[in-house]
Amino acid sequence: MDKSLQIKNLLSRWQSERNYEKFCNDGILIHKEYSKANPKILFLLKESKAKFTNIEGPLGPHGDSKVFWRNMKLWTITTAKKFEKQSVDLNSFINEKEKPNTKIAYINIKKDSTITPIDSQYSEYENIKSYAVSDSEFLKKQIEIINPDVVFCGGTFCFANFIFNDLRKIDSNLYIRNNDQYWIDFYHPSCRKGYNYTVPLLSKYLEKINQY
I want to staple 86 with a disulfide (CB 3.0 to 4.6 A). Which of 50, 81, 165, 186 is the partner? Predict the structure, then answer.
C-alpha cells in the first residue's frame, strides 16, 4: 500500500475515533515530489486554524503570515545543501522563497481544528500537550508512514517526547532517532528573526549531521 493511501486510511480512522467536528487533514504535500526529495523533511507544528484544514498540494508562499511558507522553503533548501555537503550561500537561493513548497511533509500535533486560537497568535502549551498525549499513537503512526530523514520541530520539541521516547541528543538543538532520523528543535516558521539569522543558525546545527 502506498503512503498516500496509508495516510488517508489513518486519518480516516483517527477522525472516526476522535469525532472532531473539524479535522485537520495533513501529511505529505505532493507524494511524487516528496518521494524524490533528499533528504525527506517533515515540519511538525502545533495546530492549524479552522479555515485551513486540508494541507496538501503546492502551498505558499502567500498566506496569513508573510514569512511562514518562505521560511519553510529556505530551511528546506538549506537542509538539502548541508546533506549534500555543499556550502550555504543564502543570496544564491533567496529568490526560491517565492516558489511554492512541494517536496515537504507538514503535520500538526492537534488535529482538532474545531476550536483554534483565533484571537491569539500563540497556542496554549497545556492544550497542545493534551493532544500530543491523547493522540500519541496516531501521531507516531503518521510520522512512521511519512518516514522523514529530518523532522523540524517548529516550537514543538517540548511535545516530541510525548510521541517518541527514544530521541537522543547529539548536539545543541539536534537529536537523533533510530540512528538515522534527525530531529531539530527550531523556530516556528512564522518567526520574524529574519532569513539572515535563521539560515546561518540552521546551517550551523546541520554541520553536526555531517560529522556524526
Answer: 81
